[in-house]
Structure prediction request, 173 residues.
Amino acid sequence: MKEITLMKTKLMKATVRGSSAALLVSAGVLLLFVAGIQGSGPAPSAAGDIQCSNATLRGTYGIQMRGTGPVPPPQGGGTQDLIGVVIRTYDGLGNFTQIDNVKGSVTGWVPDRPGSGTYQVNRDCTAVTYFVPGPGAPPIEERVVIVDAGRETYSMTATPAPLMVTTVGKRIK
Prediction:
């Protein structure tokens, strides 16, 4: 009987010690959590608190493009590979002009095609452009990410759906 009482006493001491340790750990975690909330301030934005505007895109950019697009029906339809280079000048106010040189694997090279359009830059340094690249072409919507304080851009064609093009642009002046 004495052994049973001794075992119960040891078990109770171990349980109390384990419960105390768990309580201390829980209290410590709670304290760290509360201290983190109190002292952390507002969370930084995804763009590192960098704010962009239309003025972020100002100047002339050299752009390389690559992707696929539809082949016009008179030339057989289907899809073709596209490559090209563009000189685009943003005015800092929401308008741009460009000269592009695009080559399709079926349609061939279209040299020095002028174009113009509009753009809107969001505070998070994303942007959207709208333009018609040439007579008879459908309007194009690009989604753009601006990096390095406006010195570089990355874009993808959002519409029209059959046009799958990405670009990389760098400010040249």
Confidence is low (pLDDT under 50) at residues 19-45. The CA atoms of residues 38 and 44 lie 15 Å apart.
